[in-house]
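In response to the reviewer comment on reproducibility (Comment 2.3), we provide here a single inverse folding case reported in full, input and output, so that an independent group could reproduce the run without further information from us. The structure tokens appear first.
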């Protein structure tokens, strides 16, 4: 009896020099691979070509989450240094975090280096091996002074301008990593798209722990994805349902937007005591599975065989091997076509990961 898809089927070898260490300037000068799912055709472009590659009436849906200065350094009572990466805020004082340091056990009290009067008590371990920390005061107003914007571990060069790891439309603070498909947009490109009749809409998903950890289980389906806080408001849901009813395409900007949009058509994946799921007032449905508005934690895990109901096309970067993001892309475009696209990208020397190039999957 099969147990599903083996995780090693989502592995690939990438030359290290293709891991982008710094962003392209300007943002929209990155390369763009276009893959057509119906024919398998692959073509090569520049991201600023996007207005000519989409159709008037298309709706681009982007994640407006903003990366917080979530990387902190602290000291143990013995003086040993500890690195903290804040991931999810449970309440004003309590956070889930990744912690790097020796013997950071429950009961230990840490003092932040940049504000020694701010302490964090280690309460517990998380299922993924992180820590639950309780601070002696809320961090939100303090983070710009005590924290740094974190970069992924495969980027080894510091950024001269931390804003370069934010999208130009980022506004809702809460992510531990940037929704990187949106890093290619500039204000000018957004104006050109809108002038062509291509609409922009925004959702929010605060990027959490699964960006940082690969699938370690033998089979993809055995992986337990961590919930991430997300929101699709009623006005946006109404506009997207109108577009769907009119036969216009919804284009997800990134895997995070994809998860929000598909959660809106699979609302059983919205969790949390304060979760809200609503039917937009005035919505007329002319097709199956409309998008509902919601606010809460989504645990939607998209794997091959998933029933896509909302998204017609997507923009995404090139993702790490054995990651939930790579599995999502395989589900959307087909695993065989994805593998071929990645082989072409390596052969053509595309740049990979957060500061790398992009693909448009139609």
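Designed residues, in position order:
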């Amino acid at each position: 009896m099969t147990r599903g898809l083996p995780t090693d089927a989502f592995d690939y070898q990438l030359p290290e020099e293709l891991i982008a260490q710094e962003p392209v300037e300007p943002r929209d000068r990155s390369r763009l691979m276009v893959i057509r799912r119906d024919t398998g055709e692959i073509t090569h472009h520049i991201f600023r070509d996007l207005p000519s590659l989409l159709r008037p009436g298309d709706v681009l849906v982007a994640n407006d989450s903003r990366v917080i200065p979530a990387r902190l350094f602290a000291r143990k009572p013995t003086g040993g240094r500890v690195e903290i990466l804040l991931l999810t805020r449970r309440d004003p004082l309590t956070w889930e975090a990744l912690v790097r340091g020796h013997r950071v056990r429950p009961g230990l009290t840490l003092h932040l280096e940049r504000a020694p009067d701010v302490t964090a008590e280690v309460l517990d371990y998380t299922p993924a091996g992180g820590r639950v920390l309780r601070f002696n005061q809320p961090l939100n107003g303090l983070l710009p002074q005590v924290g740094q914007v974190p970069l992924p571990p495969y980027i080894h060069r510091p950024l001269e301008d931390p804003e370069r790891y934010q999208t130009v439309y980022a506004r809702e603070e809460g992510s531990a990593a940037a929704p990187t498909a949106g890093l290619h947009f500039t204000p000018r490109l957004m104006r050109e798209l809108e002038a062509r009749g291509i609409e922009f809409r925004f959702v929010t998903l605060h990027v959490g722990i699964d960006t940082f950890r690969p699938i370690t289980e033998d089979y993809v389906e055995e992986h337990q994805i961590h919930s991430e806080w997300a929101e699709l408001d009623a006005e946006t849901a109404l506009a997207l349902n109108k577009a769907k009813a009119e036969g216009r395409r919804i284009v997800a900007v990134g895997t995070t937007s994809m998860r929000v949009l598909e959660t809106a058509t699979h609302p059983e994946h919205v969790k949390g005591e304060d979760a809200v799921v609503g039917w937009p007032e005035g919505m007329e449905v002319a097709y199956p599975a409309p998008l509902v508005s919601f606010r809460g934690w989504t645990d939607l895990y998209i794997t091959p065989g998933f029933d896509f109901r909302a998204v017609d096309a997507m923009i995404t970067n090139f993702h790490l091997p054995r990651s939930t993001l790579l599995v999502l892309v395989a589900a959307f475009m087909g695993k065989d076509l994805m593998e071929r696209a990645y082989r072409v990208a390596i052969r053509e020397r595309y740049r990979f990961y957060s500061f790398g190039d992009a693909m448009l999957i139609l």
